[in-house]
Recover the amino acids of this structure.
């Protein structure tokens, strides 16, 4: 009987949640790189993918908006972002600027092309 009691402790806590499934969130800590031109956003994507430059450094170099300081938009609530941007951002797993999980391909909105990453969810 003692073995049966210890079995749940050894079980992976993520098994119940399902692999790869995100917890529901109403807000995300988000960064992005925004470029008006597709060619420019693809240059930024190349630096992220091939040269492994940290996300915040690529944002400082390429982003064409007020979030140029590392691409941070801060905490954004669900409903406060453009539809396609919001959908893509809330679908991302949180990550760090040095090992980012970002939208690939970039997301197109009426503002231009975005590479989006999320640092936190709540």
């Amino acid at each position: 009987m003692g073995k049966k009691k210890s079995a749940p402790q050894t079980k992976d806590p993520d098994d119940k949640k399902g692999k790869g499934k995100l917890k529901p969130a109403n807000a995300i800590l988000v960064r992005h790189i925004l470029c008006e031109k597709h060619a420019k956003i693809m240059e930024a994507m190349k630096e992220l993918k091939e040269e492994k430059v940290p996300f915040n450094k690529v944002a400082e170099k390429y982003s064409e908006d007020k979030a140029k300081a590392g691409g941070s938009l801060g905490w954004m609530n669900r409903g406060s972002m453009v539809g396609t941007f919001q959908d893509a951002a809330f679908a991302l797993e949180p990550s760090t600027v040095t090992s980012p999980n970002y939208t690939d391909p970039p997301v197109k909105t009426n503002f231009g092309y975005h590479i989006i990453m999320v640092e936190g969810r709540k």
Notes: Helices lie at 2-10, 38-49, 55-62, 83-90. The beta strands are 27-35, 72-77, 107-109, 112-121. The first helix runs from residue 2 to 10. The two ends are 40 Å apart (CA to CA).
